[in-house]
Amino acid sequence: MSPSPAASTPAANHGEPTSPDVAPKPASWAYAEDFAVEGDAAAQARVEAEPLGVEPLSRGTVSTLTFLARTVQAKAVVEIGTGTGQSGLALFAGMQPDGILTSVDLEADHQRQARKAFSSTGIPSQRFRLIAGDALTVLPKLSDGAYDLVLVAGDTLEYADYVQQGLRLLRHGGLLLMTHALWHDRVADGSDDDDETLAVRSALEAVAENEDLVATLLPVGDGLLAAVKR
Ligand SMILES: C[S@@+](CC[C@H](N)C(=O)[O-])C[C@H]1O[C@@H](n2cnc3c(N)ncnc32)[C@H](O)[C@@H]1O
């Protein structure tokens, strides 16, 4: 089967693009996205996201965040871009019962909504530290190697800087995650040279080429990058 003319090979992989043996069918895709049951609070956080201009995560992305947080038994988590708490709730659902989420966002309004979402599901306030501020000012103040999981969202134009910070913050065996990693189907389109597309692509390449990371790019929702720090 020949690749779509729009598809580009990631720069980290020198050669022809490979194609899956079986092309994904929209019905299978939708089935997988809706496979895991979404809690009421997560559904509510999705509804609250749009009026505040926060792009909601797909159900498949939410369930994958929960799954991955559980896989590394995450206790100390950093989130870049709190939004209305949709990803935070997903992470809490997989984290250890005494795990603490440190989450940074520029917008106090978003964090107010997230605080409400966390409290309404009974997550005690000592389990989350919401820091209102610019990620690249706040992150350098957090400790090296102290975190089990770092979730990169925030400003796509800064994704490559967040990845660098994430690498510093993670312990060995810790997990770096990045949402919107396929950026509205634009990353794979080699002719798309929009600033945000280029920024996401360059963050992906930095991860793929980094020998300290074992990475995979999951085509769930708008794309989820997952990488383990060796
Ligand atoms: C796509 S939303 C992510 C929301 C959340 N992680 C989720 O998926 O539910 C991006 C968030 O990053 C925040 N943001 C944008 N630029 C930022 C920056 N420079 N520093 C910190 N947060 C930023 C926005 O205010 C917004 O809430």
UniProtKB/TrEMBL annotation:
Residues 1-26 are annotated as: Disordered. InterPro entries: Cation-dep_OMT, SAM-dependent_MTases_sf, SAM_O-MeTrfase. Keywords: Methyltransferase, S-adenosyl-L-methionine, Transferase. The keyword ATP-binding does not apply. The keyword rRNA processing does not apply. SUPFAM superfamilies: S-adenosyl-L-methionine-dependent methyltransferases (SSF53335). It comes from the Bacteria. Residues 1-12 have a biased composition (Low complexity). This is O-methyltransferase. It comes from Microlunatus spumicola.
